[in-house]
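User: I'm putting together a teaching handout on how multi-component assemblies are represented. Below are the sequence lines for each component of a complex, exactly as they appear in our records. Could you produce the 3D structure of the whole assembly as structure tokens, so the students can see both representations side by side? Please keep the chain order the same as the input.
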Amino acid sequence: MPTPVSRRSVLRGAAGAGAAGLATTALGTTALGASGSGTPEASPPRIRPHAAEPIVVHVRDAGSGDIEVFAGTSQTRLRDRDLAARIAQAIR
Amino acid sequence: MSSHREAPEISKDPVADSTDVYAFVSPDRADTVTLIANYIPLQGPAGGPNFYEFGDDVRYEIHVDNNGDGRADISYQFRFRTQVRNPATFLYNTGPIESLGSQNWNRRQFYDITEVTAHSASRIAAGLPCPPCNIGPLSTPGYQGLADAAVHALAGGITVFAGQRAEGFYVDLGSIFDLGDLRPFENLHAQYGLNVFTGPAPGVNATNHLNVHSIALQVPISRLTAKGHPTIGVWTTASRQRVRLWDEDRGENVSSGPFRQVSRLGNPLVNEVLIPLGSKDLWNSLPPSDDKRFAGYVTQPGLAALLPALYPGVFPNLAALTKAAKPRADLEAILLTGIPAGLIPGFQNFTGTVLADMLRLNTQIPATAAAKQSIYGLLGGDLAGFPNGRRPADDVVAIELRALAGVTYPLVDKSFKPDAAAAKLTDGLTPASVASGYLNRFPYLGTPYSGFDNPS
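Assistant: Of course. Below is the structure of the complete assembly, with chains in the same order as your input.
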């Protein structure tokens, strides 16, 4: 089951992404499931992001390098301290 | 109520806020069930120039569990798409909207439906038009015809409608949220020493002359049920993508990431009045299969303890029951497992031991003829009414108030004698409190109130 999120955390995510800036770097993927929690397990295939769609980066914790990347209906979670540090540097 | 603005987070997001779910054997198509999920609560009909519409960025779903595990076996996903003909005018319509294809209709919505099962995801409809909102005699003349044109027959015997409807749920919000006052009994309320009520008063329907947006499906029973499982569990969810970002160049929000559930509704009033404030947002984000963690709020409901305190001396037997702290197995059956066979002659809608808040409908119980229906459903001896599914006119407020007050406890403990007042509890409203009335055909909810005439 996906991690529960509230509307507040969604908005926090958006705000966090804004604070960290937008990254368009190609990143390694460890994609998480995309189905809603009420839907049968075999949900529709994930839509691959189009080139024109934004890629949103949410640095959850710059210290540990915990980063979420969102594009289309996908998300990827990374642990990359160097990347997190570069993004944090860019926003200062 | 029944789930309008019921949790702190979703109350700020009305487009994704589910308000009511209905599930019943269609009275005019006995081999089908009708499933209705309402969204966008408390719409003032005159709310232009940007009249109400579904969210293009919301994934709406109606789920059906047909094996009792509290997880969806079939889901119908609805995605909406708004089209603007002329962005250079501020008007919703530039002349009378005489048809769904009218050139005068400037801001239209279309939708796709995907049927999702454990094995497949099939697009069963694409580009279906919604009707306009009911604006008034100049803009939407012949509104009923516009609404009828938005009822679409799909392959497989499915019928669908998505658009504005009159609010059919009746409730006296103004009194109930004033510290549990029920106007017909308000002289019996403790009143906190203020002594403002001296006698009973009639109820006031707070949702009268307001609209909602409905997603209505009529589906063959055989398509929803599994062999040997005639009872289905129904609920709706709304989901948003995890990230919403204000794009200052486009002047609009853009969304990204996977969808996550932000709203859920099965049985009326569960999240509204049983789940405590600190857990409501979490409840909205989870599937029914996780409801075991909330079961204590159902079997030890705070409202059952409040009634004897709010109405001193009126509910002595309920007070004793609450004081004994016996788990309310009757409420658990009604709301979380279905009612097992043997408790009500000729009836059961038990789905198993998994505790899951779903609207359970035994599809083998035929619809009751209109003249013989009881708005009190099972409590009124009408096996086709709530909590065997829910019909639009069922008085779910009175049914649940009475159940909470102990009327249904003898189902599990025959030695318990409900208080005399318990079976009379009501907020003083009936279906006659709904000015629009109801339709006797799909989509069953009444014609939406027009902005021209409401408020009058």
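A couple of points students might notice: The longest helix of chain B spans residues 302-310. Residues 101 and 129 of chain B are 9 Å apart (CA to CA).
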